[in-house]
Structures are given as C-alpha cells and as structure tokens.
Amino acid sequence: MISAARPDRLPGMRKLLLVPVVAALTAALVPAASAATVPPLRPDALRAAVASLPDDEASGALVRVSGTAGGWRGSGGVARIGTRQPVHPDGRFRVGSITKLFTAAAALKLAGSGRLDLDQTVQHYLPDLLDPAVFTKPITVRQLLDHTHGIAGHGLPHKDPAWFLEHRYDTFDPLEVVKLGVAQGPQFDPGTAQQYGNMGYLVAGLVIEAATGRPYGDAVRDEVIRPLGLRDTYLPGTDPRIRGVHAHGYELTGTGHVDVTEANPTLQWAAAEVVSSARDLDRLLAALLRGDYLTPAQRAELMDVPDLPGAVHGLGISRIELTPGFVVWGKTGDRPGYNNGVAGTPDGSRTLVYSVNTLHMGGELSATARRVIAAAFS
C-alpha cells in the first residue's frame, strides 16, 4: 500500500470529466431566452427541480442562485436517510474538483508576489521527480494548471464502490501518488493536448510546497480562504469527517444505502480535498471573475483557454458556451455522495452553486443537476 503521508503535508481514474459535462450543460440550456443575457429568475422552477427528492438517484440537494438578476436559495430531500431532517441550504459538502479553483487561485497569487513562476518548469522546482531520459520535454507550472502537461493519472479506481469502501480511511502520501502517474511516462508532449484529470494539480501542490517551503494548504489558506473571508471552507487533511452542518452522502447497494460521508481525502489532496459551502463558493467565483482580488492580468491568465482542439479549461476554471455568445465560467466536482457545480456569468448577473447527494459514485451529470442548471440559466 502507498506509504502514509508526511505530517507536514497533512494540512493540506475516474474523474467526472468536464468535457461531457459541458456537453450536457449545453444540451440542457439550449432553450435560453437570449444568447447574451440571462433570463428572468424562476424561483418556482428552481424549487421544482429539487422537490421530488429523495428518489432513486439522489437523497438530497442544495441550490444557491445569486447575482444582479436576482437570487434564490433552497434545498430538497433529506440530510440523512431515515429521517425527515431537511438539507440545509448553507450546509458544507465535499466540493471535489472545485478544489482546483482554490489551488489555481493560490498559484496565481503566489506568482503575483514573485514566490512562484508559472512559466518555470516542474523540472526546476522538483528536479528529482521526472527522469530526463523519459520526460525529455519541459513541463511548466502553467501546463499543470491547464491540463496540458501530459503526465498520466495515478490509475487508482477511487470511485469504484468496492475500492472506495476498502480504502476510504487510508492515508496517502501525495508524492507517492504522483509517482504512480510519472512511472507511466508522458502521455503526450506538453502543450500539444488538453486532458483533464487530477494529476496536474497533485504535482502543482508539490511545486507550491517546493517554491514556498511550506505545506500547500498554507498557501490556500493564506492566499484564498482568509483574504476572501470564506468562513465555511477548510482543508481537512487526514480528518475523514465533515465539520458542522452537512448532508450525508450515500451509495445505494444491493443491500441498501451505505453512508459514504466519511473519507480520508489525502488521495485527492490539492486536486479535490476541500470542504466548503454554496455561500463560500459563490464568493470565490465572484472574486475570481470580478473585483480586485485578481489583477486584470491575473484574471486573463485564469481564463486563458489553450488554443487546442476541444480545449475548455483555463487555470482551474472552465469556459462553457451555453448558446452562441452566452458564456458562463465555472467548475464541477464530485466525491462519493456529493456531485457539485459552480458557474457564473462574467458580468455578475447570475451565479449558480449546487450540490446533489447522488446515490451512485462516479456517474454522469445527475438528472437533479440538469434540472437545477436548466432552471437557473434558461
């Protein structure tokens, strides 16, 4: 088994790929009233989108819509199967790959203060990681963050129910997890393709540690969580619990519902470990897309999608064109029991955050999420 994580890192393959999610979002939102503006807010449609829960697919969901065109917050289903306890709209949840927004934001801020160079190479920051006889082309930090690095994923089936239940409390050393991908050699020349996954962000976490001399989680807390006043957001390290108010996640098996809420998130680390709330994710996306948290140059870097076939990802964030000229920016993320998304218009007219407690890990965009997205943007 992979060795235990080193204590100085503790604060800190089958992903739900965003490309098919983008296609699903686009299909769900074709009826949008205007290509350039968001339609009027539809509270009844949002309420109806979660009213039928729990069902065979999900036990509960929470939704937050905000912006200059109107706001709504609500939930459906139950926070705990077997009870009537409602899902709290401001409850915490495992955000999964939305963590990449936090890691990318921290990297941009570190670069802005001269502590990290996004155009410097992984070989410079981590000279012992990549065998030069195998990885003959330089890989930049920027390429880690926009998924054009070419390093393979670790290959562990972490969203397979049997594997998850056996290993849910294991502690993983991120360097050892990265080595599983590195051992497979480059998948393509850096900068020639965009292939979404966790590996770039696991390596980016190691780079941040090498550049700062501190755990990557310190950078996320110091550069993102504290400056933005994200009160519900934290990096759990090895703690398998979710602190505070939260809905439980479940996996529906042949013998009933198995509670999968508790899990040691060290395997996900800088790619997918964060616990947060809809309120905090709303605030984070607003800061990334507008205001003075990022400089104009940093925001341009954040939203710079490589000119490559099928590319939709910038630095931790993704460009989703719902209809011609109607673009939102955001991120999806999932962990067993939790399937989430955040998306918003650059002008601040509408932001959507949702978390659905799905009953089957590692699946496609849920029907509940599709209903919520359609109600928010069409």
UniProtKB/TrEMBL annotation:
Q: Name one GO molecular function term.
A: hydrolase activity
- Pfam families associated with the record: Beta-lactamase
Tell me where the signal peptide lies.
1-35
Q: Please indicate which superkingdom the organism of origin belongs to.
A: Bacteria
**UniProt key word Transport:** no
What residue stretches are annotated with the Beta-lactamase-related domain?
56-374
Q: Which UniProt keywords apply?
A: Hydrolase, Signal
PANTHER family found in the cross-reference section: D-ALANYL-D-ALANINE CARBOXYPEPTIDASE (PTHR46825:SF7), D-ALANYL-D-ALANINE-CARBOXYPEPTIDASE/ENDOPEPTIDASE AMPH (PTHR46825)
Name this polypeptide is given: Class A beta-lactamase-related serine hydrolase
